[in-house]
Write a structure and sequence with these properties.
This protein has 274 residues and is α+β, with helices and mostly antiparallel strands. It has two domains: 104 residues; 143 residues, 3-Layer(aba) Sandwich (Aminopeptidase). Helices cover 34% and strands 28% of the residues. An eleven-stranded mixed sheet has the order 1-2-3-4-11-5-10-9-8-7-6, sandwiched between helices. Strand 1 and strand 2 form a beta hairpin. Helix 4 packs antiparallel against helix 5 and helix 6 crosses helix 7. The protein is globular, with a radius of gyration of 18 Å. It starts with 9 loop residues before the first helix and ends in a 7-residue tail after the last strand.
């Protein structure tokens, strides 16, 4: 892990936001069975886990004449392992029309996602608490299974996707990677999740999910706030995230501000179950 980021300028936060996002994948962590490439032209990681967050391409700075060849090469690697792909296009991606090329090769996208950041010293804490709500850090496999199920339900995931992501997250625990998992329990019932990644100098928040029957009660706010306060105690200056439309409102209430955009393009293997 790099040192804690002290430069809270918009440009520095945007760079750290992207770097933290990429560090949340198996790219940096020598996952058994993973094929990894890091170059000046592009970086990617292809695993045997059939989940898009585990098979990623990013930091593309490709010459126009090499774009089609690189896209075809990555798709072929994914086909061989029977996995989908997520290709990130950020502010420094080259060429500028890479997204169009990805779409022409069968990728799809939901459009840009806001990258957001907050100075943890000015984090706005909602002091209202829901009676019977507790947030715990998940540190063992049994509780991770519960966490993983709640997270999948909160995002409307599939059983196949839940199984695939548990493979990655259980490896995170086993390897002692700088990723932490938090579970909100309301009156004894697990209802929400969040994930904290302490990497690239910032505290990255991800996988904030609340099951449908527990929404609109302030639980999403609580499960987001708790790990950020933990990071602040450890000396971190900035929290970062990539916000969904629903999540953006919660983040803004906490003091998060937009520092950039990132677009993910998805290629789905046509094999069943992927």
């Amino acid at each position: 892990m790099s040192g804690i980021l002290q430069d809270l300028s918009e440009a520095a936060l945007a760079d750290a936001n992207e770097a933290n996002l990429y560090a949340s994948t198996p790219f940096l962590y020598n996952l058994p069975g993973a094929e990894v490439y890091k170059g000046d032209d592009v970086s990617w990681c292809i695993t045997d886990i059939p989940a898009r967050p585990c098979n990623v391409v990013f930091n593309a700075r490709l010459k126009p004449e090499n774009v089609d060849r690189e896209i075809k090469s990555v798709i072929e690697k994914a086909r061989m392992k029977n996995v989908p792909i997520r290709w990130y296009v950020g502010n420094d991606t080259e060429p500028a029309d890479l997204g169009e090329s990805l779409i022409s090769h069968g990728f799809i996208t939901d459009g840009p996602t806001p990258m957001m950041a907050v100075d943890l010293q000015t984090l706005k804490e909602d002091t209202r608490t829901l009676s019977g709500l507790n947030v715990i850090e998940v540190k063992d496999t049994d509780n991770l299974k519960i966490w993983n199920n709640v997270c999948s339900r909160g995002f409307g995931g599939t059983p196949q996707g839940e199984i695939a992501m548990f493979r990655w997250f259980s490896t995170v625990l086993a390897l002692g990677l700088p990723m932490r998992f938090y579970l909100a329990v309301h009156n004894g019932v697990p209802v929400a999740t969040s994930q904290l990644l302490l990497a690239e100098g910032v505290a990255g928040i991800d996988r904030v999910a609340t099951v449908p029957e527990a929404r609109n009660q302030g639980i999403g706010y609580a499960i987001t706030l708790y790990p950020l306060l933990e990071a602040r105690k450890m000396g971190y200056r900035a929290g970062t995230t990539q916000a969904t439309e629903a999540g953006e409102r919660v983040y803004r209430r906490m003091g998060f501000r937009k520092c950039g955009e990132i677009t993910s393009y998805h290629w789905r293997n046509t094999s069943p179950g992927v």
